[in-house]
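Lab notebook page, bench 4
Experiment: in silico fold of construct C2
Operator: M.H.
Input chain length: 277 residues
Purpose: comparison with the prior construct
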Amino acid sequence: FFFFSSRRRHTRCSGVSWARRCVQETGVIGAAFRRFVYSTGRALRELGLAMDARGSRLTNDAAYLEQLSRHRNIMPIYELQPSILIDSFVAPNATVVGEVLIGSQSCIWYGAILRGDNHAIRIGNHTNIGDNTVITTSMALPPGIPESVNIGNNVNIQQNCSINSCIIDDDCVIGFKSVILEGVRIERGSVIAPNSLVPPGSLIPSNQLWAGSPVEYVRDLRPEDVKTIRDMNEDSVELGQEHKFKVLPDVLDEYKLFQNLENPTSYIKAKDRLNQE
């Protein structure tokens, strides 16, 4: 009866769209169907790579021996799709995996790893993720502690930091080689000094400087400190835009076309639409 009624409701749809809608209405079957589509797409990609390697051998082209061409720095996992606005910069050797949402004019610098394979990672606008910084999420935490990572606007996370399942509010600075563990809440405008360790479940009040391993309160921030932090973050955003258009020269043309799209959503979807045009 279910398939009969669904078919009557969607007689004007194509066979593929009708089948997709039917399985989406059945929960577990819908998830299995999405995984089947993902596996089919991956199989076709692998088949294409194998055919390319065979053709390269026949034409004495050694390009297929280049292993770096297999690297995908923006990669979905099943239904977990990255969402990156087109005016943000993701370095060519950075890695963004799974449910990662990146806002406008943010910078993911060289060697950074953002793994949203367990839970979501959300990054606001004008935020910098420094070189070789790793952001991950925990599989499960005690009730009341969010497993996701939420990073606000105008945040500057410097090089070689480790961030795990925490909340970092707007206008914060995380110093070099700092470790932010699960359940931490860093309120607006606070600064964590370099080489600091913030223990699990810690609360860092707003507009304060903390340092040490584990961190301890140092002092309140002065107005000149706030201005310096703001200027430093703006410089990093501008530098990221320069890297974006110098390292990836065709991105500028994509960005100009992207501005004409009616409903810009994510970097991947925008590129698909641009390729179709």
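Observations: Residues 28-58 form the longest helix (31 residues). The longest strand covers residues 113-123.
Next step: discuss at group meeting.
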